[in-house]
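Student:
Attend to each token:
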Amino acid sequence: MSLLEHESEAPDDVAARGEEYTKGSGHLIWAAVVATVLVSIAIGLYVWAGQKPPVAVGSIEQVWAHPMHTETSGFDASGAPMPKQSYDQILVFTRVKLHNQSDKPLFLHQVMANATLDDGIHTSYAATPSEYERVFAAYPQLAPMHGSSLPSEATISPGQTLEGTFVSAFRLTQQQWDARKNLDFTFAFEYQPTLKLVPQSAVIAQ
């Protein structure tokens, strides 16, 4: 028997050894896939556990807009004549529901209406309940929009829903108001993230 014959291997031996290598590689691939899946699940659970639902939710129930043209009397507080001034404004009446879905009380301390126009965002703070009532006393024709006023500083207990109406005013003409691009409302709570709500129905012109 020659030296060449001694050093050669049978074809069956070579095939068997290749099959063993292939089996080993397959196990490594499956192990890597399983490890990747487990890591992905662990990351997902960590992110999910770290996310908390918002402390407050709510909805804008109705919005009415009333244009007004105001002109001063031409006299100051002492009765002396002064130049008359006139301006246009839009009174926005909004009925809202706010719900505390946390386990701690929420302290509402600021409400804002935000109208987006071509020149940017115009923000108007909600009037206090006393100012809200004075509007209806001064303009009886607005009575159809009157409702229970939303407290300007209210405490919402856990699980409680607060509902009320507030008024805000924009120094805009009717044309500028009609050309707005967006309208939303911001509700600020002490020590908690603000809540932004968008009306789901069209603004009613009055």
In short: The two ends are 112 Å apart (CA to CA). The CA atoms of residues 51 and 81 lie 63 Å apart.
